[in-house]
Design brief:
heterodimer, A: alpha/beta, Glutaredoxin, Ubiquitin-like (UB roll), 5-stranded mixed beta sheet, 24 helices, 20 strands, globular, B: Glutaredoxin, 2 domains, 4-stranded mixed beta sheet, 7 helices, 47% helix, elongated
Chain lengths: 637, 158
């Protein structure tokens, strides 16, 4: 592979990348991130490959990451010269021959695209890619453009700018979209101090949850004493319900690498580590390939861009410990030890990995860096809210119509995310709350829908930004059960070092289990609150310090549900098994017998075509009867 | 001197790949687990000697992280995702159903050594909730109803 040493080399590589992105003839891409593959993208890809071969077509088939709209995967894009890019959702192997017919004929009669792309931003290059020469064929005019799709309309893609567009295994495609330009600029025309200055100006705050200003952290690490320094990328995305970092590592690994090289240059580090969750095999594979490719092109290793700056990156796989998302625990894990946090009065920027100055940022933070350097800190600071600049990627999941990854400007009202981007709640149910910040965060009730989504407003509301999980809940979600769920999670993830965290969370868990089992006592809520205070005050790291948040925020906004569980022994959402019973509405039941057949404990009986009955003594409350009833005849209360 | 066993030889190979640095311990254990599906005692003893790390330290690491298992696992690891999105979509019902259908509790292995049932902390497939990963394959939007058929398919493959 030819080394990239100069701006000219970079441009040549970029030109090659452009040819591979837009080869001129017909190009078909399949979104092959983990979510795509799990939805069947692998079969679709195989079918396309076989069909193209069978018909001896000169089509080019390629893989990309995820565009974010997971609810329409597998997603297949068709790129043809001078035509809008067309995106086909929910593709199946069976539909492939029809799709190919359609491309040949040049119509969209059999399968309708979800949207078309006439032009798209190439944000790192301050350009637009125009697919059409201003002429959209008549037969495509009825198809909404990318920017008209509600899911994408309010999004601004910076960290996820390349996901779903480029082949993550092709460095040239990354370069074609402005990749490594920022690195070239930083290394050849900016001093390390100037790079830090730019990051400070951008206002970029840590996207992993802490929200600490990245530039300030870099500056502290740069001024720390020591010849050997490290930069670390935290890809141990442990928050359940969050997968932004997975998507970036899978779909655009080079942006993380470029961000880290720029950071290393600014700080004065020679070595970098990416700590990735073991649960993300595709992310590990794509990052590994990307690092190898960057190395073979001379973008990692000695004398990058012909300067005297040398830097390399190693990947370290996590082994499944939530607490390793905490920086000191992560560093302990990198050293091959159990991931126990330590007190942070000694900062990791001074004494981190192997006691040396170490700068740790999360995947999304690093992914923003190349664009900030390419476009300027000022440009970035003008996006978003005053003290929370830029965008934030959220995984919008749970009881919401448009499930997927969204990147929105900070400061956007919560209701815009839920109802515009997310398309509201399925099944006509009522929006109840949204959980942000994972086990360290809290719930924001529907009454606070106008809340601005930024670091400070979320904190004031009793939750936090966290890494970006946004789990939407409707009236069928029990808030007490949810608090119990998070606390149970933390019981097994507390490293056990501090007694208030180890034992305190366990006791809270026991109490919440009792409440959900109908054994709650008056005064339990007050006791939970007082224990929460003890745990927060007595814990060393953020895991313990924020562990009671899910309980406190649900008590704050949903006290009535706690009271219903404790006093009336009822679960209003119909979730807590000890407090609910399934019943058959005799008026609605047609006696079809489907539920009786599916019931694993054979507790539903009745004559054919007559209303059935549930034997409450035998019922195990698995809910399968309710799931399988087509006549809404089964109720839970 | 006792003769080197197959496990000793394999462990030595793995250590050679990663180097004898103490920081390589986790990566070494991961490779051993990939080879045997769990961490055999014999291998851990070999690591202890080769890396010059006390066995207690190795067990500390092996028991701290969720990935590692000190007990043999079945051919297919059945991992029920316990992430938040999966939880609110009723993943606990899937766990119950799997426990009933496999006749084992979470953390156990079936007598025919085919399945080991475990809970996993979020697979990052929140948009496909609830999900269960079996032998590395993700089964999206899973319902209790589909479980018998899926298990049958894996049994058929043997």
């Amino acid at each position: 592979m030819k080394k990239i040493n100069t701006l000219d080399d970079l441009k040549k590589a970029g030109d090659k990348g452009l040819k591979s992105l837009f080869p001129g003839g017909v190009k078909i891409t399949v979104g092959m991130a983990t979510s795509g593959i799990a939805s069947g993208a692998g079969e679709v890809y195989e079918a396309l490959s076989a069909e193209i071969k069978k018909r001896k077509l000169p089509y080019i088939l390629a893989k990309t990451g995820s565009m974010g709209m997971d609810c329409i995967e597998p997603l297949v894009d068709i790129i043809e010269k001078d035509k809008p890019r067309l995106a086909y959702g929910k593709m199946t192997a069976a539909k492939v021959p029809q799709l190919i017919d359609q491309i040949i004929k040049g119509d969209i009669d059999a399968i309708k695209p979800v949207y078309r792309v006439d032009e798209e931003d190439v944000i790192a290059k301050r350009e637009k890619k125009h697919y059409t020469k201003g002429m959209v064929p008549e037969y495509l005019k009825g198809i909404p453009t990318f920017n008209e799709v509600p899911f994408y309309k309010k999004q601004i893609k910076i960290a996820t700018r390349n996901c779903g567009i480029i082949d993550p295994e092709n460095i040239e495609e990354y370069i074609a979209r402005g990749g490594y330009l920022a690195l070239q600029k930083a290394l050849t025309s900016l001093s390390p101090e100037a790079v830090i200055e730019e990051v400070i100006k951008s206002g970029l705050r840590g996207r992993g949850g802490g929200g600490f200003p990245a530039g300030i952290k870099w500056q502290s690490c740069r001024s720390a004493h020591g010849d050997i320094k490290y930069v670390i990328c935290n890809g141990d995305e442990g928050d359940p319900g969050a997968y932004m970092d997975r998507s970036v590592m899978e779909g655009d690994p080079h942006t993380v690498i470029e961000g880290m090289i720029i950071g290393a240059y600014a700080i004065g580090a020679q070595e970098g580590f990416i700590y990735v969750r073991n649960e993300y095999p595709l992310a590990v594979a794509n990052l590994t390939k990307a690092i190898e490719e960057a190395r073979s092109r001379g973008l990692l290793g000695k004398n990058i861009f012909g300067t005297n700056f040398s830097f390399d990156i190693k990947i370290s796989k996590g082994a499944g410990a939530f607490v390793c998302g905490e920086s000191t625990a992560l560093m302990a894990s990198l050293e091959g030890k159990a991931g126990e946090p330590r007190a942070k009065y000694i900062h990791t920027v001074e004494h981190g990995l192997w006691d040396r100055p170490s700068n740790l940022n999360n995947v999304e933070t690093w992914a923003n860096v190349p664009v900030i350097i390419a476009r300027s800190g000022k440009w970035f600071s003008e996006i978003g809210a005053p003290h929370s600049t830029g965008t934030k990627v959220f995984s919008l999941v749970g009881k919401i119509n448009n499930i997927g990854l969204v990147e929105v400007p900070m400061g956007i009202p919560l209701k815009d995310i839920i109802f515009d981007v997310g398309g509201g709640i399925p099944g006509g149910r009522k929006f109840k709350a949204v959980q942000t910040g994972g086990p360290s965060g809290g719930c924001i009730p529907a009454s606070m829908m106008d809340l601005s989504v930024d670091f400070d407003a979320l904190w004031e509301a009793g939750s936090m930004m966290g890494s970006g999980g946004m789990i939407v809940m409707d009236e069928k979600t029990c808030m007490v059960d949810l608090a119990r769920y998070f606390i149970e999670f933390l019981v097994s993830e507390s490293c056990g070092k501090c007694t208030p965290c180890r034992e305190g969370i366990r006791r809270m868990n026991d109490m919440l289990h009792d409440i959900c089992a109908g054994k709650g006592r008056e005064g339990d809520v007050e006791l939970l609150e007082s224990m929460a205070k003890g745990i927060v005050d007595g814990s060393l790291c953020a895991l313990g310090g924020s562990a009671p948040n899910p309980v406190l925020s649900t008590i704050k906004y949903f006290r009535d549900e706690y009271d219903a569980h404790i006093k009336q022994k009822k679960c209003p959402a119909g979730v807590c098994r000890a407090l609910i019973r399934y019943e058959i509405d005799a008026k609605k039941c047609t006696g079809c017998g489907v539920c009786a057949k599916k019931c694993p404990s054979a507790c539903i009986t009745g004559e054919k075509k007559k209303a059935h009955k549930i034997n409450q003594k035998k019922c195990i409350k698995c809910g399968i009867c309710m799931e399988s009833c087509k006549f809404d005849a089964i109720t839970v209360a | 001197m006792k003769k080197a066993t197959k496990v000793d030889v394999k462990t030595k190979e793995i250590i050679k790949k990663h180097g004898r640095e103490k920081s390589a311990l986790i990566a070494i254990l991961q490779d051993i687990q990939e080879e045997y599906n769990y961490l055999p005692k014999e291998a851990l003893n070999a690591v202890s000697i080769q890396l010059d790390v006390p066995a207690s330290r190795i067990y500390e690491v092996a028991t701290f992280y969720n990935t590692f298992s000190l007990n043999p696992r079945g051919q297919y690891l059945v991992e029920v995702c316990a992430g938040t999105a999966c939880h609110v979509q009723g993943a606990f019902n899937l766990m119950d159903r799997l426990q009933r259908d496999l006749g084992i509790k979470c953390g156990e292995t079936t007598k025919d050594n085919l399945f080991t049932l475990e809970e996993v902390r979020c697979l990052g497939c929140c948009s496909l909730a609830p999900v269960v990963r079996i032998g590395g394959n993700i089964h999206p939007y899973l319902t209790q109803d589909e479980i018998p058929r899926i298990l049958r398919n894996y049994r058929k493959q043997g």
